[in-house]
């Protein structure tokens, strides 16, 4: 993240800690926020995903003592401005707000211009940029290599695979670390050399009167190193586009449309920089028997009238074999029978329930003894005084 973004981000607030919090307090708070807003726990929730990314940025800075110190100094530097880098400061005869004066003609000076001069891709930090201006004599720090981009792909699973979880190979064609130079960009047997012009900082400093500014080094293009013998396969970038197969573990209980994050499996960074992440969107095919309601597994099973009237035990399929389900005597058509713990695995542990709906299957063509028996039963049922529609419509005609 560029230092210019730090002024407008309150990392302490993102994690819910005070600015003087200890490293242990920050780590505990970060774990809590990241777990609460993890994409796997909030599928399809864009707000939770943004909160997760913001908390990840905050954790990356605040748990690194050097980054945290630099962040605090940057925030203090602009604390009096009341705003971000878009604010302009007037000079006036008495001098600008940073001392030394910006000219007696009251001309405005945009701090953002200094950052733009340094370049977004270079890596000049806030000390490099204003070192000459404040006379602090800050030394340039080596530029950080650029992280690879995040990638997205899709996969399709059977219903049972999604419910139980599955390990599967996934083929990707994307930028990946060069296998010839192992991502360094240099021909095997050689290595990049520190740029003599910027001494590895990636930026060079210039002084103009009262001001000092930095700009990307033109010799190394802001990378801080020069490759004298580029790799013949990646031509010095450390990255090649190739087809690769990675093994992906789909967790149990994944739902249709859910995105799964695979850290470090995205696009490779230049010259050995960290890779981005891979996001896999899962599409789940419908099943002929099962459906889901959250962590509960649902199915509808056909039964005969006699089974409901007399009671029986049904053999019902589950994700792991079959199970016997008792149907009480006199069970009504459409009743839902619950089997505890035979549903979809939960992220928190355990499983949901199996919900079995019984539905009477009516024979379409009765003949012989079956027809005679049913007619005899209908007559006996009527003689007993049973009326299936008794009280059904009240006094309505």
UniProtKB/TrEMBL annotation:
Placement of CXXCXGXG motif repeats on the sequence: 178-185, 195-202, 217-224, 231-238
PANTHER family: CHAPERONE PROTEIN DNAJ 1, DNAJ HOMOLOG 1, MITOCHONDRIAL-RELATED
SUPFAM superfamilies found in the cross-reference section: Chaperone J-domain, DnaJ/Hsp40 cysteine-rich domain, HSP40/DnaJ peptide-binding domain
Protein name: Chaperone protein DnaJ
Protein encoded by which gene: dnaJ
Residues annotated as binding Zn(2+) 1: 178, 181, 231, 234
Sites where the protein binds Zn(2+) 2: 195, 198, 217, 220
GO cellular component: cytoplasm
Free-text note regarding domains: The J domain is necessary and sufficient to stimulate DnaK ATPase activity. Zinc center 1 plays an important role in the autonomous, DnaK-independent chaperone activity of DnaJ. Zinc center 2 is essential for interaction with DnaK and for DnaJ activity.
Function statement: Participates actively in the response to hyperosmotic and heat shock by preventing the aggregation of stress-denatured proteins and by disaggregating proteins, also in an autonomous, DnaK-independent fashion. Unfolded proteins bind initially to DnaJ; upon interaction with the DnaJ-bound protein, DnaK hydrolyzes its bound ATP, resulting in the formation of a stable complex. GrpE releases ADP from DnaK; ATP binding to DnaK triggers the release of the substrate protein, thus completing the reaction cycle.
Residue ranges, annotated region (Disordered): 35-60
Highest taxon above the source species: Bacteria
Organism name: Mycolicibacterium fallax (Mycobacterium fallax)
């Amino acid at each position: 993240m560029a230092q210019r973004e730090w002024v407008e981000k309150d990392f302490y607030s993102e994690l819910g800690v005070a600015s003087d919090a200890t490293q242990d307090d920050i780590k505990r708070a970060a774990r809590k926020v990241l777990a609460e807003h993890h994409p796997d726990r909030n599928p399809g929730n864009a707000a939770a995903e943004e909160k997760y990314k913001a908390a990840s940025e905050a954790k990356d800075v605040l748990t690194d003592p050097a980054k945290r110190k630099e962040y605090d100094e940057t925030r203090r530097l602009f604390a009096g401005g009341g705003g971000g880098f878009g604010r302009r400061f007037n000079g006036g005869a008495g001098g600008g707000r940073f001392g030394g004066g910006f000219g007696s003609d009251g001309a405005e000076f945009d701090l953002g211009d200094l950052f733009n001069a340094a370049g977004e891709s270079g890596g000049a930090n806030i000390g490099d940029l204003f070192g000459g201006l404040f006379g602090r004599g800050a030394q340039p720090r080596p530029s950080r290599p650029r992280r690879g981009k995040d990638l997205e792909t899709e996969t399709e699973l059977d219903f049972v695979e999604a419910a139980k979880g599955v390990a599967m190979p996934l083929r990707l064609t994307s930028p990946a670390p060069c296998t010839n130079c192992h991502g360094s960009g240099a021909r095997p047997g050689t290595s990049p050399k520190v740029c003599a012009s910027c001494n590895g900082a990636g930026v060079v400093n210039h002084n103009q009167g009262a001001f000092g500014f930095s700009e990307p080094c033109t010799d190394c293009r802001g990378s801080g190193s020069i490759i004298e013998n580029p790799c013949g396969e990646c031509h010095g970038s450390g990255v090649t586009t190739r087809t690769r197969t990675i093994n992906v573990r789909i967790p149990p209980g994944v739902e249709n449309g859910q995105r799964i994050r695979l850290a470090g499996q995205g696009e490779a960074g230049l010259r050995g920089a960290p890779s981005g992440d891979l996001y896999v969107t899962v599409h789940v095919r419908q099943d002929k028997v099962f459906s889901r309601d959250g962590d509960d597994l649902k199915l509808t099973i056909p039964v005969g009238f006699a089974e409901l009237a007399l009671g029986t035990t049904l053999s019902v399929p589950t994700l792991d074999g079959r199970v016997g389900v008792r149907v009480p005597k006199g069970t009504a058509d459409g009743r839902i029978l619950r089997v505890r713990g035979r549903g979809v695995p939960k992220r928190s542990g355990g499983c949901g329930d199996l919900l079995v709906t019984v539905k009477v299957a009516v024979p379409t063509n009765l003949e012989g003894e079956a027809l005679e028996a049913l007619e005899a039963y209908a007559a006996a049922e009527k003689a007993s005084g049973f009326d299936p529609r008794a009280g059904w419509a009240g006094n309505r005609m």
